[in-house]
């Protein structure tokens, strides 16, 4: 049986999926390009040939995660341009644990002068997208993103999501009646 060769775009997508898995598990510092290569079934030099550096691979992975959120928000707003609709879309994204975890790793690596601007731009794009799609004011958008960050942290701790741990009283209080 003949193997079909992946296009450069398909191979890059394969590497970014592997990077999402690897970086979500080990963070920026705890992940190697060799781990990404093994997950993708390619050689480590190939990863470097495509992305140049581990840092560039991480940045592209964080950008991809931000793009995924923005795309999902745009689809939700096409049906109903409200904060509630975007919130429901984000609830769905919380099930994609690797996505939210890699964003958290990006936030924690933001002290690095090469990583910080990219992560801040990603977050700023999401903020601007929320305002653009819903017409929310600054305070409304701030509250929406604050709740989203809370849910992101709780999702990473497995308080929310498809594999959530049994809820303790503090979790129920923190989530409130709508999410508990």
Automatic annotation (TrEMBL):
Residues of the DNA-binding region: 32-51
Signal recorded as keyword: no
One Pfam family linked to the record: TetR_N
Signal peptide: none
Domain of life: Bacteria
InterPro entries: Homeodomain-like_sf, HTH_TetR
Key words of the record: DNA-binding, Transcription, Transcription regulation
Entry-linked PROSITE patterns: HTH_TETR_2
Boundaries of every HTH tetR-type domain copy: 9-69
GO molecular function: DNA binding
PANTHER family linked to this entry: HTH-TYPE TRANSCRIPTIONAL REPRESSOR NEMR, TRANSCRIPTIONAL REGULATORY PROTEIN
Record's protein name: TetR family transcriptional regulator
Organism encoding this protein: Couchioplanes caeruleus subsp. caeruleus
